Amino acid sequence: MTAMTRLYAWGTPLLPGMMLAATVAAASAFLGAHYGAPVMLFALLLGMAFNFLHEDDPCRAGIDFTSQFILRLGVGLLGIRIAFDDVAQIGLLGAGVLAGLIALTIATGFVAGALFGRSWRFALLTGGAVAICGASAALAIAAILPANDQNERNTLFTVIAVTALSTIAMVVYPLVFQTVGFTDIQTGFLIGATIHDVAQVVGAGFQISDTAGEMATITKLFRVAMLPVVLLLIILALRTTATGTGRGKIPTLPWFMFLFLSLAGLGSAVDLPQTLVMQVDAISRGLLIMAIAALGVKTSLKALTTLGSGHLAMVVVETLALLGFAMMAMVWLDLL
Q1: Does the CA dihedral 243-246-249-255 come out positive or negative?
Q2: Per DSSP, which regions of 9-50 are E strands?
Q3: pLDDT band at 8 (very low <50, low <70, confident <90, very high)
Q4: Nearest C-alpha neighbor of 67 from the set 292, 321, 307
Q5: Mean pLDDT of 130-144
Q6: What is the sign of the dihedral through the CA atoms of 150, 285, 80 and 103?
């Protein structure tokens, strides 16, 4: 059997499910562009409408492949966004503040989890998503957590919640920061430090001014750059506490983290053509939308409704805590 024949035999069963996810992703991209709404939210909702197809053998293998391998590949390609020279512009104090905000927000997630009776997995998933970069962080953290029967449902809920709250924050936060009296640079820093998803950060920042938009983007890039650091710390903690016994040996460093770091390092060492960076970033975003669509197909709306109000309350508490911590740091430390 030739290599091409083996590849055909391996890939053919995956095509129906992958085509379904790609179709949902394309429809979501069209709706997002037409209505100016979050594409990932459309992908989730449309995907859940096709939940019945996950029960069919022709689609199941491809949907599972997309929600796992394609998800990890999309996260790995996110590294093309990072240029360490750009991130360094926020300075040591700004970097320290952002690292502290990430740690405090994740810690808040564990406290809220104990108060609302939710598992440590969900606390880590939501805390990391709010602290770092929203849906992308949720997908990356979910990829390394020990598997159980609630992982995919919790991941899907987290993506929905942080995407919805990011959209609300994009409208509300600029008004709050300007009312308080922060400068454009300070407002940009706060927007980049507190809004979950990159698209909403850019939208909120540039609606104020170019200065605020540029600072918001740089600040957000630092948070994204912290993603592999946080993932590595989670892996080390899981290995140390032997929490990962549910699915065998926990990997030392997943392959998609190597890809993320390699692309970030390449982009920092070499002046890559902007066209190439934009194309790889677009591919990454497309793959993540496909993965979200596949997760939606795998999850029923009925299953999500059984999660209870505590799940949403946790994400809201973490979001408000991050906002409060950031504003206090700005005032107390007189940043920027």
Answers
A1: negative
A2: none
A3: low
A4: 292
A5: 89
A6: negative
Q: What is the distance between the alpha carbons of residues 236 and 226, in angstroms, rounded to a whole number?
A: 16
Residue 320 has which token pair?
């408000």
pLDDT range class, residue 131, cuts 50, 70, 90 = very high
**Phi and psi angles of residue 36, each rounded to the nearest 5 degrees, phi first:** 65, 35
Q: Helix 184-194 and helix 151-180: axis angle, to 10°?
A: 170
For residue 84, the number of C-alpha atoms closer than 13 Å in the C-beta half-sphere is 11
Contact between 321 and 115 under an 8 Å Cβ cutoff? The reply is no
Q: How far is it, in rounded angstroms, from Cα 308 to Cα 329?
A: 33
Q: Which residue has the higher pLDDT, 166 or 318?
A: 318
User: Where in the chain are the domains?
Assistant: 62-333
Q: pLDDT digits over 214-249, tens only? A: 888 889 888 988 888 999 899 888 887 755 444 445
Q: Which residue, among 101, 124, 99, 100, has the nearest Cα to 111 in the 3D structure? A: 124
Residue type at 197 in one-letter notation: D
Alpha carbons 301 and 48: distance in angstroms, whole number: 7
- For 120, the token pair is 């440590």
The pTM of this model reads 0.78
- The tokens describing 249, both together, are 């040996």
